[in-house]
Amino acid sequence: MAALVKRVGWATRPLLPVAQTWDFDARRWVRALRRSPVKVLFPSGQVVDRKPGAGKQPGKAAAEASPHGQRPKQVPPSQTPSTWEESGLRYDKALPGDKRLSNVMTIVRSRPFREKQGKILLEGRRLIADALKAGAVPKVFFFSRLEYIKELPLDKLKGVSLIKVKFEDIKDWSDLVTPQGIMGIFAKPDHVKMAYPETQLHHSLPLLLICDNLRDPGNLGTILRSAAGAGCSKVLLTKGCVDAWEPKVLRAGMGAHFQVPIINNLDWEAVPNYLPPDTRVYVADNCGLYARAQTSDKASDYGWVCDRQLSKLHKYEEEEEEDLETGASKGWLPELEVQSYDLDWTEAPAAVVIGGETHGVSLESLQLAESTGGKRLLIPVVPGVDSLNSAMAASILLFEGKRQLRLRAEHWSRDRS
């Protein structure tokens, strides 16, 4: 047994030098692969000279080129944009992990950040095209297909960052049920610098809209759409209203933001500065609707109900109760005549105040109406029916004002002829 073990041990001895020789050859060949040849000889016989340093590794070459021999900081591949150029358009293709879309969406979805950065979000090809036509300034476009960018006017895309992203990324950030594959970040439009459509300016009427305490984005968007359709010359939004450039308002407005001037976030003290001379302010007051089934059928009898609601809104309950019991006059509350909406109220430039459904019109709006000789406009409804939706009431009053102005223009032209 011992002899057998001795023979096995003797038989394995010659294998050690062979293994060592193989390790030596492997190391030699690996070292040879790292060398940079001076010339390359192809099987066809062609000889190609190699440039000095061409075989160096990129990281090593960069380290030697950098000062103090330090290797520069490498940028992760997920953060390195891939630049492409096609059909004269130069754009970046976002790689996995690119945070530019999420960073921008975080800003434009928050009203404080939106106002601080002065940027808005537009989604959809039609809305973006309307904005570009009106002179809005684009900053960045995120798109999933290059065809969507080619549909836009190329002269408007100079200096704009174009970033191609996956459709799934747009879908994650989109508020639309069916995303259209393109989002645009624009500078917040200035009504003074905008170029509104010529047809809209040609049909503009001496009719303004003032939004007061409108908090619902869908209602405000619908109201702006009605204002553009009726031919309003201007829309004023006081403080307390929802932001006109919120994505939900833009979606409900269907491009109305770029057809009629919109002045946002105004104090009531500044509102008269945006009204034409001799403008009369009329208040769309739904308070009278509650009194229809309780008191008289006369519009003039509805005023005390509005006074009662305003007193609760402005915390004057005790003073109001004393005044109602004694019949004393309330000096703090403006006294406005109530008029049916279909009677003539457009003999002078008119501004209509629309209040929110929850808080109604403010005391400041009634004071402005009183100072300009305006009235309360009442839309009669069937007894027992609650007040109309703010967007519906605004549409009725604006198109009624348009009808009255059209009839006045027809009478004037007929008398002139």
Automatic annotation (TrEMBL):
It comes from the Eukaryota. InterPro entries: Alpha/beta_knot_MTases, MRM3-like_sub_bind, Ribosomal_eL30-like_sf, rRNA_Methyltransferase, SpoU_MeTrfase, SpoU_subst-bd, tRNA_m1G_MTases_N. Residues 54-65 have a biased composition (Low complexity). Keywords: Methyltransferase, rRNA processing, Transferase. The keyword tRNA-binding does not apply. One of its GO terms (molecular function) is RNA methyltransferase activity. Residues 47-87 are annotated as: Disordered. Residues 121-192 form the RNA 2-O ribose methyltransferase substrate binding domain. CDD domains: SpoU-like_RNMTL1. GO terms for cellular component: cytoplasm. The keyword Heme does not apply. GO terms for biological process: methylation; rRNA processing. Belongs to the class IV-like SAM-binding methyltransferase superfamily. RNA methyltransferase TrmH family. This is Mitochondrial rRNA methyltransferase 3. It comes from Rhinolophus ferrumequinum (Greater horseshoe bat).
